[in-house]
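To illustrate the input format used throughout this study, we show a single complete record. The first block contains the structure-token representation of the backbone; no residue identities are included at this stage. The design step must infer an amino acid for every position from geometry alone.
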């Protein structure tokens, strides 16, 4: 099972102003989003954004009075895009395995561009973030887990997926696995390692890879 992403869904996660275009607020968000995805929230300043856009810091503060305001806007926009991508997956694809494959593909596409999941990066800095951003990140993760849980329940019901435990726990495990796999793959600069790991995870859920414990049991 190859991990891929439909072009329309991939664009939904990175849409923004075209190079050199768009209104100032959107351009600020685009640059700040990339910086967070590459450096983390604590790894950039208003001066970095202002220098890249040749704006004054006063102009940035006009649109986003504080960095916390900017962070909240980033999570809100990213969450909206992700929600649209999930809605597109639901509309375009039938069957739990195909939907999970497309979901993993969203992460793979972001990693291919040399970035990390925005909210994954923010989650790694949870204790240092302003409380409103913390809450926004948790809400994003909860929404993803809820969507995954729904897909898993569908797959269990029609026997296209098999897994032990609750759909909720498995959903959290999938989300954690994908976010963690992005970090490892990025550290080694190996996008294909992420795709291989994600594919193995999905094939196990679809029952096309026998769990190691079962293989051991069969040899006894």
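Output of the design step:
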């Amino acid at each position: 099972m190859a991990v891929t992403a439909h072009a329309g869904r991939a664009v939904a996660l990175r849409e923004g102003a075209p190079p050199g275009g768009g209104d100032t607020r959107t351009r600020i968000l685009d640059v700040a989003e990339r910086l967070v995805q590459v450096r983390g929230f604590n790894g950039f300043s208003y001066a970095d954004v202002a220098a890249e856009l040749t704006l004054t810091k006063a102009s940035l503060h006009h649109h986003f009075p504080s960095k916390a305001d900017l962070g909240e806007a980033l999570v809100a926009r990213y969450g909206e895009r992700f929600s649209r991508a999930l809605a597109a997956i639901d509309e375009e694809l039938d069957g739990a395995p195909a939907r999970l494959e497309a979901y993993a593909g969203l992460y793979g596409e972001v990693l291919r561009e040399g970035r990390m999941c925005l909210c994954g990066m923010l989650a790694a800095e949870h204790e240092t973030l302003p409380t409103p951003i913390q809450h926004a990140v948790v809400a994003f993760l909860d929404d993803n887990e809820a969507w995954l849980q729904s897909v898993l329940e569908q797959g269990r019901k029609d026997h296209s997926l098999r897994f032990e435990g609750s759909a909720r726990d498995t959903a959290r495990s999938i989300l954690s696995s994908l976010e963690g796999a992005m970090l490892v793959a990025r550290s080694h600069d190996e996008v294909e390692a992420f795709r291989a790991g994600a594919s193995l995870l999905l094939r196990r859920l679809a029952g096309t890879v026998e769990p190691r414990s079962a293989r051991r049991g069969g040899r006894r």
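Structural context for interpreting the output: The two ends are 30 Å apart (CA to CA). The chain has eleven helices and no strands.
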